[in-house]
Amino acid sequence: MLFIFIGLFVCLYALPSITLALLQIRHIKKELQKPAILLESEDYLQAGAYAIASLRLNIISTLLETILFSAWVCFGLKLLNHELTLLFPQTLNPLWQGVALILSFVLLGSIIELPLSIYKTFGLDKKFGFSKQSPQLFMIDLCKHLLLSLIIGGVIAALLILIIENVALWWIVGFIVLLCIVILANLIYPTLIAPLFNKFTPLEDDNLKARIESLLNTIGFKSNGVFVIDASRRDGRLNAYFGGIGKSKRVVLFDTLLDKISADGLIAILGHELGRFKHKDILKNILIIACLLFVLFFVVGHLPASLFSALGLAQNGAGVIIVMLLISPVLTFWFMPLVGYFSRKAEYAADAFGASLSSKHCLANALVRLVNENKSFPSSHPAYIFFYYTHPPLLQRLKALDYDIQH
What we know:
Helix content is 74%, strand content 4%. It is mainly α. Zn(2+) binds at residues 272, 347.
């Protein structure tokens, strides 16, 4: 049974992921032989080199993930469970024993994968001029992530354990509770979580602020402010977004964006983001997440007891959650095409809306500016787009905006 479990992980996740990465690498290498588009020749070559290097790193990450999965399945979970049983006294509440098992499982996995994260930040991204992060800031962020994961993850784990072990149709109730937590996270993230990692300051440019607020008023978007974050401390790439739901909504601009994009271009980009709000894309995304969570809970809720026994786990709350974490990459991978399909359609609609608030020309020029500053390679393999892209390829977006690619 364990070999079947590992085989399914390899066939349904690892091999398809690696195959798609190899297809994308081959596609980019072929495109690099052609004349540069949208970027200057030197930037075009650099964007391609970065994309290929990132894909190779993703392949290594997938291989490591597969080895780690196999190790957990074959002996790791049995060993971890045994060591925690020896470590904690028998008098300890079983609930907290379960929480300790889950958090230990997540923590050990994160530690094993940490070297790849360090290499990406200080090797790959530094080499191509993206990462601005210092070792000190990296460690501070890491400690904050760890602390938040232990606190929030521990609370969620304890809640789910109680549901799994005390409710008959636990997979339905657990799904509803976790979905509520996802919605709550969207609500509190902009005002409570994000400020722990970035400094948020009100936009000081009164003229730009007035233009943004006028833009928001045209469609009745009520936010609690327009803020600039110090993204340049960590990364040189550009971005802007609307965060939160309900009264927590806020407009967030990267300080890198203000330095590189004109006011007209910025208004066009925000118009696109407003289009997503106008079309209720956040609610649609939550609905899609709900479908994924439902499938995940349904599958784990109907797994045979023999699988838990073979893994060295009791079929209790902690055991169920760990198996859920083990198989979630597989389900997420096969759910991504559905997510991408609806997301790409939404992006086209948001582009059309943004263009109606400014102009097609203005939005297209802003998108081209973004791809130049972020050194994003403008072409991808169709299969890679199908599985991974939540945004349409830039060339297709520009075509929809009547932009002359050779311009």
